[in-house]
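User: Sequence in, structure out. Go.
Assistant: Echoing your sequence, followed by the structure tokens.
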Amino acid sequence: MDVETNSLIDEFNSRIEDYNSILDLVDTIFVVVDEHYVIRLLNNKACSVLGYEKHEIKGKKPTDFVAASQKDRLNTKLERLFKGDVKPDEVNEFAYLTKNGQERIIKWNNAYLKDKKGKIVFVLISGEDITEKKREEKVQPTISRILIASNSEVNIDELFKFIHSSIKELM
């Protein structure tokens, strides 16, 4: 790292408390990751969604909190982000695990903080928990199939079997 990059990082570090107080007002998940893929800053919304305290997340890597099946994909995304290969409007979804083991689907948007030479020093990530929306998208077609079947099925036993199997698929 050169002097200019270190200066930018030092400036960022000296203002973290100011940034924290501002970001805690926002009802969007907000995380700042450095070039070593370490979480340097996050807001209260990130903590409430994941069920951790700030000190349990800060200093760790985003991959420490994703489902095992997503770690390689997230590492690849982080590499691409710091190379500048990801467009700012490119949206990403990853499955994160809360402290109590629940899976939450987070949709991310990214922005960059660069030094004067154009090197990406931090990635600013804003996110939205879309877990419930994803569940609704999965449930809605099943409800539609059940309604259609209830209007056309004459045999009540067959209808109940169909309903049972449809609900079982959702679980």
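User: And one key feature?
Assistant: The radius of gyration is 21 Å.
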